[in-house]
Structure formats: structure tokens, C-alpha cells
Amino acid sequence: MNLLAKSSPLRYLLLLALSLLLTLTSPLLPAVSQTDGGGSPFVVATEPTFPPFEMTDEATGTLTGFDIDLIQAVGTAAGLEVQIESLPFDGIIPALQSGTIQAAISGITITAERAQSVAFSSPYFKAGLAIAVREGNETIQSLEDLKGKKIAVQIGTTGAMEAAKIPGAEVVSFDSAALALQELVNRKVDAVINDGPVTLFAIKEAGLRGVKVAGESVTEEFYGIALPLARPGETNQNQALVNYGLFQIIADGKYKALYEKWFGAEPPFLPLVAPAMVGTQAALEQAQRGPREPFFITLFRNLIRGAGVTVLLTVFAVFFGLIGGTLAALALISPAKILQWLFRIYVEFFRGTPMLVQLFIIYFGLPGLFKELGMEWTLDRFPAAVIALSLNVAAYLAEIIRGGIQSVDPGQWEACQSLGMTPWQTLREVIFPQAFRRVLPPLGNEFITLIKDTSLTAVIGFSELFREGQLVVATTYKAFEVYIAVALVYLVLTTLSSIAFKALEHYMDPVGRAKKLATS
Ligand code: GLN
Q: CB under 8 Å to 44, separation ≥6 — which residues?
């Protein structure tokens, strides 16, 4: 039977649910996919941790920066009602493709490759990549010197693409340029490849200490405002409007004033078309032809590698989490009040604060604290991730295990005592086996949560399953396919662990097993 046949009740139910969802969410949706004019806002996305191009004004909490001023001026000149939204950098191109935003200004370099997926305005800024190293490092001067070195980059950027070309280099990707630079300060990597003006701003204006620029402009790049590609045969009306606005403010001197305001210098000459796009057709064909392997192969390889890391992280975190959780549970029910209190505070802290924050504290925060105390101490990514995950999971397990132990009838303690068993013997031989069986279902839940939570370690540059997926999106811009595949792999992992826990439950249930044997 066709479940979705015209007269099928399921079809009506689905349609009803869909229309309800659309009605309920329509006030939340930005006015996109409508044609412009008619006062509908022109939604422009930016990744706001890229000073001096886009950043948050500390005093007012609003977005500010050269790009923000520029797009406002362009909007005014072109009659577009600009509305700025924040997005992660690697989400910008997929959002343009899906039409959830109408443009993006985020220090985006015009490249022939990106031009296959999005349209660009004329260049509005001349930039280039810079190599940042720690002060005192004289050995790294150029891209050549980075062979075999550890490099931190921002995910999905031209810096990341450049780093990927360096033979033997170990590349770690972060969500923002600031975190990549922090990694350099914390001595975890040898260099950062990032846009020159941003690195210089971080050093000169934002007071980033211990870092210098080794190669200032190792590439020449031009930033453009990105827009969705026009459908075949249609003209890109918004692209024309944005270009009109841009030329307007260049002609009337507003552009020059803005450039001077943010960079204290005269703007350089800007070409009408970015050199990367000159002979566009040839450049595009080159980009298409390149030594790229098929998308599904890249995806498969990256996801398998990521899944391996995810499983490894989970296994380590469960191992330490179980030990920690059991010890904490014993402390919580111990007669020593001080122990009880200490562990109560521990449990409340780790359950009551987001794991993301805990990860940042352990990985980025602690080395900073030690540095201020005059000590050089850093933690590698893997131990940091395992510590954060284990501490977190142990806090939850402590409560589950405590509940399990306390659920065993106290009369059994007395019975054991009268048999002459020591408290430790009682725990080990009598209480634990029963408690363990009772806590298995919530333990299974925790395990599944943990598998999913390992995805948070991507923020400290860990290439687990989710980050591996993000890395594929950053080069292929196929967000839907990749994230669905990532979700499916998580689903496989969690389903397998559900099955394993069910089997364990069954194995641990002697009564059930005996019954089954008797009936068979
Ligand atoms: N210009 C770089 C790029 O386009 C970095 C941009 C950014 O991080 N906002 O990839």
C-alpha cells in the first residue's frame, strides 16, 4: 500500500503537521526568498569575530567594524534595507546557497572556487594572508618554512586552504581566528595562517602578546560581498544593486573616509574584478578540473576517520567517568561530611554548567591562568577533551550510581554484617552487583548522551566526527548531504551502543535468563 497515496490519512496528517509548523514559525523566519524592494530587509550575514572587519562593540554590544560600516553605506546608496545577522564563517556559503540570507560580508576572499557556489560583488578590500609565529621564532619566514610544522587556522578560510597545501604540515582548525591565535600563544602550534590585517590588528590594537608576524603578505587576496548565484538565465539583481552601491560610495568619497577611519591610511587601488576571477571561465574550469577526488570518497574517508576519534574519546571518557563516578558516588554516601560536601559541589558544578564552557576553561583557560602565575603549562587536545568529558560524565554517573546503591534494601547491609562480612565485602559481593543491574538503563542513556557530546570537542580543534563533517562542508559547500551523513553515523554509533546495553542488561539479569532457559 502506498502510505502517501492521495487519500491516505497519513498524507493528511503530514500535510496538517507541515502547515501547522509553517504557520507557527513564519513570524520567526526572516523575510528571505522574496524579491527585494517593497521594504523587505536585505539580510546580510557576518562572522563577528574578525576585527577590525567585524566585531562586537564592547560598550554597546552591537556589531561594528569596517565591513559593517561599509555594508550600511552600500545599503544606503543602493536603497537596500540592510539587516545584519551573525553566522559561523563555514556556515555562510551554505546559507547563501539555501537562500536563508541574501548576502554576506565577512572579509570573504573572492576565489574562483567559491565563485562556483556564490556570486561576488566587485572587490572592496585588498588583503593577503600573513604567517604569525611566537616572538623569538626566527626559523619561520615563509610558507616554505612551514613544511612539517603544526599550524592553526580558522575553518573554511583561505588560510586553511593554504595550510592544507603545505606538505607534511599538521593543521588544526578552529571556529575563529582569535582561537587559532590563542593556540599559538599557548604553544600548541608553531604558526597561524590568517588574514594579515586581522593578525596585525590582534597584535597592535587588541594587545595580543608574544606573537609576531613573520610573513606579512604571503598571498594577495581581495574581499568581496557574497550573494547567492542567480538562477541560469536570470540576471543577479542584488549583485547589480550591491555593485552600484559600492561604486557610488567609492565615487563620493565615503569609502575613502571609512578606510581612513579603520586603517588610518589611504585606500589602495581596487581592481574592478578580482585577479582570481580574471579569465573566470578558465579559472573556474581549473578549479573544477583540479586534482579533486570524488565528493563521496572524501566524505566517507573523513567520516570514518572522525567516527574512529569519536569512539576513542567515548571509550576513554566512559572508562574514567565510570571510575570517577563510582568514587564520587561512594563519597556522596560516605559518613564523612566533608567528603560529601566536596563531592556535592563537584557534582553540582559539572552538572550545572555547560560542557562547552568546561571545555574552554580546561583547554584555553587553565594555560592562561598558569601563565599569569609565571608557569608554562599546557594540556594537549586529547587529554583536555578526555578530562572535560570524564569530569562531566562522572558527575552524572555519581548521582545514578548513588541512587543505585541506595536502592538496595538496607536490611541486606545488616544481614551481611551478621554474617561477618566487612563493609567492603558487602559492597563488592552483594550491593554492587544488584546496584549495577539497576543502573544499567540510565547508564545506557548517559553513554548515548556522551557519544553525542563528544561533538563539542570540535571547538578546541579536535577532529572528531562532527568537525570532520564541517571540514568537508568547508571545501565542498554540500552542507545538507554532509550533515545528514554525519547524523547517520552518530545514529549508527548510538544504536549499536543501545543494542550492546540491552544485551548487557539481559546478561546481567540471571532471573530473566533462567526463565528463558526454562521455557526453551
Ligand atoms: N579572507 C579569509 C577567507 O575568505 C578569511 C575570512 C574570515 O575569516 N572571515 O577565507
A: 71, 82, 83, 84, 85, 101, 102, 103, 104, 105, 225
